[in-house]
Amino acid sequence: MSDLEGRLRAPGGGLSAGGPAAPGTAAAEHGQWRLIRRRFRRHKPAMVSLFLLIAIAAFAFLGPLVWTWDHQVHREIPSNAAPSLAHPLGTTNAGHDVMGQLMRGTQQSLQIALTISVLGTVIGAVWGAVAGYYRGWADAVMMRVVDVFLVVPLLVVVAAVGGNVQGGTQWYSVALIIAAFSWTSVSRVVRGVVLSLREQEFIEAARAAGASGARIVLRHLLPNAAGPIIVAATLLIASAVLLEAALSFIGFGIQPPDISLGQMIGSAQTAAFTRPWLFYPPGIVIVLICLTINFIGDGLRDALDPRQTMVRR
Protein backbone atom coordinates (compact mmCIF):
# COMPACT_ATOMS: atom_id res chain seq x y z
CA MET A 1 0.00 0.00 0.00
CA SER A 2 1.38 3.37 -0.98
CA ASP A 3 1.83 6.25 1.47
CA LEU A 4 -1.01 8.10 -0.26
CA GLU A 5 -3.41 5.18 0.14
CA GLY A 6 -2.41 4.66 3.76
CA ARG A 7 -3.04 8.27 4.69
CA LEU A 8 -6.39 8.39 2.95
CA ARG A 9 -7.65 5.02 4.16
CA ALA A 10 -6.75 5.75 7.75
CA PRO A 11 -9.66 6.41 10.12
CA GLY A 12 -11.12 9.75 9.22
CA GLY A 13 -9.44 9.78 5.81
CA GLY A 14 -12.14 11.72 4.03
CA LEU A 15 -15.42 13.51 4.00
CA SER A 16 -17.37 10.33 3.40
CA ALA A 17 -15.48 8.15 5.89
CA GLY A 18 -18.44 8.00 8.22
CA GLY A 19 -20.98 7.59 5.44
CA PRO A 20 -22.06 10.02 2.74
CA ALA A 21 -24.08 13.07 3.45
CA ALA A 22 -27.49 12.67 1.93
CA PRO A 23 -28.53 15.44 -0.42
CA GLY A 24 -29.76 18.28 1.76
CA THR A 25 -30.56 21.91 1.72
CA ALA A 26 -28.15 24.58 0.56
CA ALA A 27 -28.03 25.92 4.11
CA ALA A 28 -26.98 22.53 5.48
CA GLU A 29 -24.22 22.20 2.88
CA HIS A 30 -23.03 25.74 3.63
CA GLY A 31 -22.89 24.92 7.33
CA GLN A 32 -20.92 21.76 6.65
CA TRP A 33 -18.27 23.57 4.60
CA ARG A 34 -18.13 26.34 7.19
CA LEU A 35 -17.33 23.70 9.81
CA ILE A 36 -14.63 22.29 7.53
CA ARG A 37 -13.06 25.72 7.12
CA ARG A 38 -13.12 26.26 10.90
CA ARG A 39 -11.39 22.92 11.52
CA PHE A 40 -8.76 23.69 8.92
CA ARG A 41 -8.06 27.14 10.39
CA ARG A 42 -7.52 25.54 13.80
CA HIS A 43 -4.89 23.21 12.36
CA LYS A 44 -1.89 25.47 13.04
CA PRO A 45 0.75 23.55 11.02
CA ALA A 46 -1.56 23.55 8.01
CA MET A 47 -2.29 27.28 8.28
CA VAL A 48 1.40 28.16 8.65
CA SER A 49 2.18 25.92 5.69
CA LEU A 50 -0.56 27.55 3.61
CA PHE A 51 0.85 31.03 4.17
CA LEU A 52 4.39 29.79 3.50
CA LEU A 53 3.28 28.13 0.25
CA ILE A 54 1.56 31.36 -0.82
CA ALA A 55 4.80 33.22 -0.10
CA ILE A 56 6.78 30.73 -2.20
CA ALA A 57 4.30 31.10 -5.06
CA ALA A 58 4.49 34.89 -4.82
CA PHE A 59 8.30 34.68 -4.91
CA ALA A 60 8.13 32.50 -8.03
CA PHE A 61 5.47 34.31 -10.04
CA LEU A 62 5.63 37.91 -8.80
CA GLY A 63 9.33 38.10 -7.98
CA PRO A 64 10.48 38.19 -11.63
CA LEU A 65 8.30 41.26 -12.19
CA VAL A 66 10.35 43.32 -9.73
CA TRP A 67 13.74 41.61 -9.74
CA THR A 68 16.49 43.05 -11.92
CA TRP A 69 17.79 39.83 -13.49
CA ASP A 70 16.05 36.86 -15.07
CA HIS A 71 17.36 33.30 -15.45
CA GLN A 72 19.26 34.02 -18.67
CA VAL A 73 22.98 34.74 -19.13
CA HIS A 74 23.86 38.46 -19.08
CA ARG A 75 27.17 40.06 -19.94
CA GLU A 76 26.81 42.50 -17.07
CA ILE A 77 26.72 39.68 -14.51
CA PRO A 78 30.17 38.71 -13.18
CA SER A 79 31.10 35.01 -13.16
CA ASN A 80 31.34 33.04 -9.94
CA ALA A 81 30.54 36.04 -7.75
CA ALA A 82 29.80 35.43 -4.09
CA PRO A 83 26.49 36.63 -2.59
CA SER A 84 26.22 40.42 -2.49
CA LEU A 85 23.57 43.15 -2.43
CA ALA A 86 23.39 43.09 -6.23
CA HIS A 87 23.25 39.26 -6.35
CA PRO A 88 22.00 37.94 -2.98
CA LEU A 89 22.54 34.30 -3.97
CA GLY A 90 25.67 34.86 -6.03
CA THR A 91 26.21 34.08 -9.70
CA THR A 92 27.20 31.06 -11.78
CA ASN A 93 30.29 30.48 -13.87
CA ALA A 94 28.32 31.22 -17.07
CA GLY A 95 26.97 34.53 -15.79
CA HIS A 96 23.53 33.66 -14.37
CA ASP A 97 22.02 35.43 -11.40
CA VAL A 98 21.14 32.60 -9.00
CA MET A 99 18.21 34.55 -7.51
CA GLY A 100 16.70 34.94 -10.98
CA GLN A 101 17.30 31.23 -11.65
CA LEU A 102 15.68 30.29 -8.35
CA MET A 103 12.56 32.32 -9.16
CA ARG A 104 12.26 30.74 -12.60
CA GLY A 105 13.02 27.24 -11.32
CA THR A 106 10.43 27.50 -8.56
CA GLN A 107 7.89 28.81 -11.05
CA GLN A 108 8.53 25.89 -13.41
CA SER A 109 8.36 23.29 -10.65
CA LEU A 110 5.12 24.70 -9.21
CA GLN A 111 3.27 24.93 -12.50
CA ILE A 112 4.39 21.43 -13.48
CA ALA A 113 3.32 20.04 -10.09
CA LEU A 114 -0.08 21.77 -10.18
CA THR A 115 -0.75 20.52 -13.71
CA ILE A 116 0.19 16.98 -12.74
CA SER A 117 -1.98 17.18 -9.64
CA VAL A 118 -5.06 18.38 -11.52
CA LEU A 119 -4.75 15.94 -14.42
CA GLY A 120 -3.70 12.98 -12.27
CA THR A 121 -6.49 13.57 -9.78
CA VAL A 122 -9.18 13.95 -12.45
CA ILE A 123 -8.08 10.84 -14.36
CA GLY A 124 -7.60 8.78 -11.21
CA ALA A 125 -10.87 9.86 -9.59
CA VAL A 126 -12.99 9.11 -12.67
CA TRP A 127 -11.20 5.82 -13.33
CA GLY A 128 -11.57 4.64 -9.74
CA ALA A 129 -15.20 5.78 -9.48
CA VAL A 130 -16.21 3.95 -12.66
CA ALA A 131 -14.42 0.77 -11.59
CA GLY A 132 -15.92 0.87 -8.09
CA TYR A 133 -19.45 1.59 -9.27
CA TYR A 134 -19.75 -0.99 -12.05
CA ARG A 135 -17.63 -3.69 -10.36
CA GLY A 136 -17.61 -7.10 -12.08
CA TRP A 137 -15.49 -7.55 -15.21
CA ALA A 138 -15.13 -3.80 -15.71
CA ASP A 139 -13.61 -3.42 -12.26
CA ALA A 140 -11.31 -6.40 -12.80
CA VAL A 141 -9.97 -5.14 -16.12
CA MET A 142 -9.56 -1.53 -14.98
CA MET A 143 -7.76 -2.49 -11.79
CA ARG A 144 -5.40 -4.80 -13.67
CA VAL A 145 -4.47 -1.83 -15.82
CA VAL A 146 -3.74 0.08 -12.62
CA ASP A 147 -1.62 -2.80 -11.33
CA VAL A 148 0.46 -2.74 -14.52
CA PHE A 149 1.12 0.99 -14.11
CA LEU A 150 2.04 0.49 -10.45
CA VAL A 151 4.65 -2.22 -11.02
CA VAL A 152 6.45 -0.31 -13.78
CA PRO A 153 9.21 2.00 -12.41
CA LEU A 154 7.68 5.43 -12.89
CA LEU A 155 10.95 7.35 -13.08
CA VAL A 156 12.39 5.03 -15.73
CA VAL A 157 9.27 5.09 -17.90
CA VAL A 158 8.83 8.86 -17.74
CA ALA A 159 12.52 9.40 -18.49
CA ALA A 160 12.36 7.07 -21.48
CA VAL A 161 9.17 8.63 -22.85
CA GLY A 162 10.33 12.18 -22.18
CA GLY A 163 13.64 11.57 -23.89
CA ASN A 164 11.92 10.40 -27.08
CA VAL A 165 9.09 12.92 -27.35
CA GLN A 166 9.70 15.95 -29.51
CA GLY A 167 9.41 19.03 -27.33
CA GLY A 168 9.63 16.86 -24.22
CA THR A 169 11.73 19.48 -22.47
CA GLN A 170 8.91 22.05 -22.43
CA TRP A 171 7.30 22.30 -19.02
CA TYR A 172 3.84 21.36 -20.27
CA SER A 173 5.22 18.31 -22.11
CA VAL A 174 7.00 17.16 -18.97
CA ALA A 175 3.80 17.70 -16.95
CA LEU A 176 1.63 15.75 -19.41
CA ILE A 177 4.06 12.83 -19.52
CA ILE A 178 4.32 12.57 -15.73
CA ALA A 179 0.55 13.00 -15.29
CA ALA A 180 -0.07 10.06 -17.62
CA PHE A 181 1.65 7.79 -15.08
CA SER A 182 0.71 9.48 -11.78
CA TRP A 183 -3.01 8.77 -11.39
CA THR A 184 -2.95 5.17 -10.21
CA SER A 185 -2.81 5.68 -6.43
CA VAL A 186 -5.69 8.16 -6.63
CA SER A 187 -7.79 5.68 -8.60
CA ARG A 188 -7.33 2.93 -6.01
CA VAL A 189 -8.27 5.24 -3.15
CA VAL A 190 -11.39 6.54 -4.92
CA ARG A 191 -12.42 3.01 -5.91
CA GLY A 192 -12.33 1.94 -2.27
CA VAL A 193 -14.52 4.87 -1.24
CA VAL A 194 -16.99 4.29 -4.09
CA LEU A 195 -17.35 0.60 -3.25
CA SER A 196 -18.77 1.73 0.10
CA LEU A 197 -20.82 4.62 -1.25
CA ARG A 198 -22.59 2.61 -3.97
CA GLU A 199 -24.44 0.58 -1.34
CA GLN A 200 -25.88 3.64 0.40
CA GLU A 201 -29.57 4.47 0.28
CA PHE A 202 -29.23 7.70 -1.70
CA ILE A 203 -27.53 5.77 -4.54
CA GLU A 204 -30.33 3.20 -4.50
CA ALA A 205 -32.80 6.08 -4.66
CA ALA A 206 -30.99 7.55 -7.65
CA ARG A 207 -31.12 4.19 -9.45
CA ALA A 208 -34.82 3.84 -8.67
CA ALA A 209 -35.42 7.31 -10.08
CA GLY A 210 -33.89 6.18 -13.38
CA ALA A 211 -30.54 7.99 -13.16
CA SER A 212 -27.93 6.67 -15.57
CA GLY A 213 -24.66 5.21 -14.39
CA ALA A 214 -22.71 8.21 -15.67
CA ARG A 215 -25.00 10.63 -13.81
CA ILE A 216 -24.70 8.65 -10.58
CA VAL A 217 -20.90 8.63 -10.83
CA LEU A 218 -20.55 12.32 -11.70
CA ARG A 219 -23.38 13.84 -9.65
CA HIS A 220 -23.51 11.60 -6.59
CA LEU A 221 -20.44 9.40 -6.07
CA LEU A 222 -17.62 11.82 -6.92
CA PRO A 223 -19.04 14.76 -4.91
CA ASN A 224 -19.45 12.50 -1.87
CA ALA A 225 -15.85 11.31 -2.28
CA ALA A 226 -14.62 14.91 -2.31
CA GLY A 227 -12.64 14.54 0.92
CA PRO A 228 -10.24 11.79 -0.21
CA ILE A 229 -10.00 13.36 -3.68
CA ILE A 230 -8.99 16.78 -2.31
CA VAL A 231 -6.39 15.27 -0.01
CA ALA A 232 -5.07 13.10 -2.85
CA ALA A 233 -4.64 16.19 -5.02
CA THR A 234 -2.51 17.94 -2.41
CA LEU A 235 -0.31 14.91 -1.81
CA LEU A 236 0.16 14.41 -5.53
CA ILE A 237 1.62 17.93 -5.78
CA ALA A 238 4.46 17.02 -3.40
CA SER A 239 5.16 13.79 -5.29
CA ALA A 240 5.17 15.67 -8.59
CA VAL A 241 7.67 18.25 -7.31
CA LEU A 242 10.08 15.50 -6.28
CA LEU A 243 9.62 13.53 -9.50
CA GLU A 244 10.15 16.58 -11.71
CA ALA A 245 13.27 17.52 -9.73
CA ALA A 246 14.63 13.98 -10.13
CA LEU A 247 13.99 14.00 -13.88
CA SER A 248 15.65 17.37 -14.35
CA PHE A 249 18.57 16.26 -12.17
CA ILE A 250 19.32 13.28 -14.45
CA GLY A 251 18.76 15.33 -17.60
CA PHE A 252 15.30 14.23 -18.76
CA GLY A 253 13.25 17.18 -17.50
CA ILE A 254 13.55 20.88 -18.18
CA GLN A 255 16.64 21.63 -20.30
CA PRO A 256 18.75 24.79 -20.83
CA PRO A 257 18.29 27.61 -21.62
CA ASP A 258 15.28 27.14 -19.31
CA ILE A 259 15.79 26.10 -15.70
CA SER A 260 14.16 24.07 -12.94
CA LEU A 261 15.04 23.36 -9.32
CA GLY A 262 16.26 19.86 -10.11
CA GLN A 263 18.46 21.14 -12.92
CA MET A 264 19.94 23.78 -10.59
CA ILE A 265 20.89 21.08 -8.07
CA GLY A 266 22.35 18.87 -10.79
CA SER A 267 24.49 21.60 -12.30
CA ALA A 268 25.80 22.70 -8.87
CA GLN A 269 26.38 19.30 -7.26
CA THR A 270 30.17 19.68 -7.49
CA ALA A 271 29.96 23.07 -5.76
CA ALA A 272 28.10 21.89 -2.64
CA PHE A 273 31.06 22.74 -0.39
CA THR A 274 33.02 25.28 -2.41
CA ARG A 275 30.08 27.50 -3.47
CA PRO A 276 27.12 26.41 -1.33
CA TRP A 277 24.99 29.36 -2.46
CA LEU A 278 24.58 27.55 -5.81
CA PHE A 279 23.60 24.16 -4.40
CA TYR A 280 21.50 24.62 -1.28
CA PRO A 281 18.84 27.26 -2.17
CA PRO A 282 17.00 25.08 -4.76
CA GLY A 283 17.16 22.09 -2.41
CA ILE A 284 15.71 24.14 0.45
CA VAL A 285 12.87 25.36 -1.77
CA ILE A 286 12.03 21.77 -2.81
CA VAL A 287 11.98 20.65 0.82
CA LEU A 288 9.79 23.61 1.83
CA ILE A 289 7.28 22.96 -0.96
CA CYS A 290 6.98 19.29 -0.10
CA LEU A 291 6.69 19.91 3.66
CA THR A 292 4.06 22.64 3.28
CA ILE A 293 2.01 20.53 0.88
CA ASN A 294 2.09 17.55 3.24
CA PHE A 295 1.05 19.66 6.24
CA ILE A 296 -1.78 21.18 4.19
CA GLY A 297 -2.83 17.65 3.22
CA ASP A 298 -2.87 16.66 6.91
CA GLY A 299 -5.01 19.69 7.72
CA LEU A 300 -7.47 18.90 4.95
CA ARG A 301 -7.65 15.27 6.03
CA ASP A 302 -8.56 16.29 9.59
CA ALA A 303 -10.95 19.03 8.48
CA LEU A 304 -12.83 16.77 6.08
CA ASP A 305 -13.21 13.96 8.63
CA PRO A 306 -16.86 13.88 9.76
CA ARG A 307 -15.87 11.86 12.83
CA GLN A 308 -13.21 14.34 13.92
CA THR A 309 -13.98 15.46 17.47
CA MET A 310 -10.59 16.71 18.65
CA VAL A 311 -8.95 19.87 17.39
CA ARG A 312 -5.19 20.26 17.28
CA ARG A 313 -3.92 23.17 19.33
Automatic annotation (TrEMBL):
It is a multi-pass membrane protein. Keywords: Cell membrane, Membrane, Transmembrane, Transmembrane helix, Transport. It is found in: Cell membrane. Residues 18-28 have a biased composition (Low complexity). Residues 106-297 form the ABC transmembrane type-1 domain. The keyword Mitochondrion does not apply. Belongs to the binding-protein-dependent transport system permease family. This is ABC transporter permease. It comes from Nocardiopsis mangrovi.
